[in-house]
């Protein structure tokens, strides 16, 4: 991806977080970047093409950021250390895992745009799936892993959509309160299989 194209997309994300979808106007983004509309048309197929590219960029960043943070702990990390690392990354900065203004802006946009709604649904599902993978060795069923993943995820989403959003340090404190509830070792899968009965 070219440097100028990246700049258009990164600035679009910043504008979206600051002003919502109504602020994502090509002339304003061009002025902020000091780039021409010719540069825009070189990289994107009109406003709709830019919207699709911006959504794809947001989706990629949203999913990769969580996956990267989980991978940093490594395959030998237990659920508590992985979730502890994710808790550390809740900080008030653009690159942190918690970006309430951006989350609110995209969720609000998704209420009126089916394409944005589809992107948001994919992001939510991918993030939940990543958290489920973290939890799965520590519970006995997939359903329990999903429930365990939903708790921190819904806490983060809820914290971002209340008005005003919960501050990053306060949300980090909430997650630190939950960490002692995370199991220290893998679940006894034999017990889970017996409860499930023969296949």
From TrEMBL:
DNA-binding region(s) in UniProt: 25-44
Keyword Hydrolase: no
Coiled coil region boundaries: none
Residue span(s) of domain HTH tetR-type: 2-62
Lineage: superkingdom: Bacteria
SUPFAM superfamilies linked: Homeodomain-like (SSF46689)
Swiss-Prot/TrEMBL keywords: DNA-binding
InterPro entries: Homeodomain-like_sf (IPR009057), HTH_TetR (IPR001647)
Protein name in the entry: TetR/AcrR family transcriptional regulator
Protein's organism: Occultella gossypii
Lineage summary: Bacteria, Bacillati, Actinomycetota, Actinomycetes, Micrococcales
